Amino acid sequence: MHPNWPAAVATAVLSLIAPPLQVLAADPLPLAEDGSWRLLFADEFDEPDLDREKWTTCYWWNKDGCTNLGNNELQWYRPENVSLADGMLRLTARPQPVTGFEGRIFDYTSGMVTTGRDYEELPRPSRVRFRYGHIEVRAKAPAGKGLWSAIWLLPETRESRPEIDIMEVLGDTATTLRMHYHYRDGLGEKLSIGKDVETEDLTRDWRVYSLTWDPDSIVWYLDGKEVWRHAEAATISAEDMYVLINLAVGGEWPGAPSTETTFPAEYLIDYIRIWQRDDRQ
């Protein structure tokens, strides 16, 4: 550059010769984990509509909606109760009678998303499944009796076990973070272990729920801090699993909503990210 040009002129000329470089943001790293990771899957929910290549809105037995009859839940999951706005996924529960399974009337509708598959898609694999890694979700659970927020993993085999519950929050006891692992032992017997951790009210603000799943351990975290560890290698799931995020209403565990439960109730998800260790395929 000519040494006598004013700085402003020099800058303008440089911008014509070489436009400023665009700095691309690096892939985010896990909040809770050190080490070398590669990002396997992420959704920041910044688009206007749910990405159907990543998500479906029911369990694999979806037939114009679905529910979990095994828990006697009171909601019927519908795609209309899943929406994106302001960079967030919103799962909305409403008191809204609707006809569901075998003509049964459900008193509530609600929303769920899963990286699994629908009934008519069963020959194909789940949209996103993984074996071992680290999953992180920033979420805000709703308060209220009868509201049951969850983030969990189920096996690609469509069996009920193993099941890894990353978080479960009951809206009327939201100072307790609940975590579970359901599996079968070497003889096929169904076993379950769990941990309740007392904390600040999980419905008052955004929290980060995460889990590291390795061949020899499963570790749960809240806001980047370890809160539970299961390290019996012989019992750890060694099969592909997919993700579910849902807002249930009622059921044997949380009980029915009370007159003080506020509707519509929204379970908000800011992002979900899944990594795998660099040295693992």
Describe what this molecule looks like in 3D.
The chain is mostly beta strands. The strands form two sheets. Strands 1, 2, 3, 4, 5, 7, 12, 13, 14 and 16 form a ten-stranded mixed beta sheet that branches. It has a six-stranded antiparallel beta sheet with strand order 6-15-8-9-10-11, with no helix packed on it. The protein is built from one helix and 16 strands. The chain has one domain: Jelly Rolls, CATH 2.60.120.200.
At a glance:
The protein is mainly beta. Helices cover 4% and strands 43% of the residues. Residues 1-24 have low confidence and may be disordered.
How is the secondary structure organized here?
Elements lengths: L6 H11 L19 E7 L31 E3 L4 E4 L2 E12 L5 E6 L1 E3 L18 E8 L6 E9 L7 E8 L5 E9 L5 E9 L8 E8 L2 E6 L2 E6 L10 E9 L15 E13 L4
Helix percent reads: under 10%
Query: Which strand-content bin applies to the residues?
Result: 35-45%
Low-confidence stretches: 1-24
How many domains, as an integer? Answer: 1
Class of secondary structure makeup: mainly beta
CATH fold group? Jelly Rolls
